[in-house]
Amino acid sequence: MQINAHKVVTIHYTLTDNDGNILDSSSNGEPLNFIQGIGALIAGMEEGLEGKVKGDKLQLKVAPEKGYGIHQPEMVQQVPMSAFGGQMVSEGMQFEAGSDEQRFIVTVTAVGDEFATIDGNHPLAGVELNFDIEVLDVREASEEELAHGHVHGPGGHHH
Ligand code: ZN
Q1: CA of residue 154 to ligand 1 center, whole Å
Q2: Does 153 reside within a domain?
Q3: What mean pLDDT comes out for the span 41-60?
Q4: What is the rounded CA–CA span in Å between residue 22 and residue 85?
Q5: pTM score, whole prediction
Q6: What percent of the chain has pLDDT over 90?
Q7: Whole domain around residue 100: which residue ranges?
Q8: Centre of ligand 1 from the C-alpha of residue 121, in Å
Q9: How far is the CA of 150 from the centre of ligand 1 (A)?
């Protein structure tokens, strides 16, 4: 069975940057289960997996445009320390911002005496992604899974 829209796919993956640093990996834990074709994964990963079958091993290079987006300079801002309401702020700290419709993670990238620099880009924005993938299983998604937009059973939702 080939991977295409509305298949439940189980993979192991390792994600590295161009310097070979491991950014994320499923190999020490549960494999990743997802429904293909509903935007559960970044576009470059879905495109690269399309047509693959159980047992396939592949390497994918995903450009930022098909990954977590390009790095947008206007998402980087200087904010006065007073905006944090006396909270301790340190470099690398992350917090949620935005409205109910669109939440995003903001990372503190620098802290000065009066101002902190915050970056609303995804931490992997602008990064070329290298995936090492093994396809462990491919099956049809049930109507219930498609209605819910997530995988049920082992490695998925239990409810
Ligand atoms: Zn469900």
Answers
A1: 12
A2: no
A3: 97
A4: 36
A5: 0.82
A6: 81
A7: 73-119
A8: 30
A9: 6
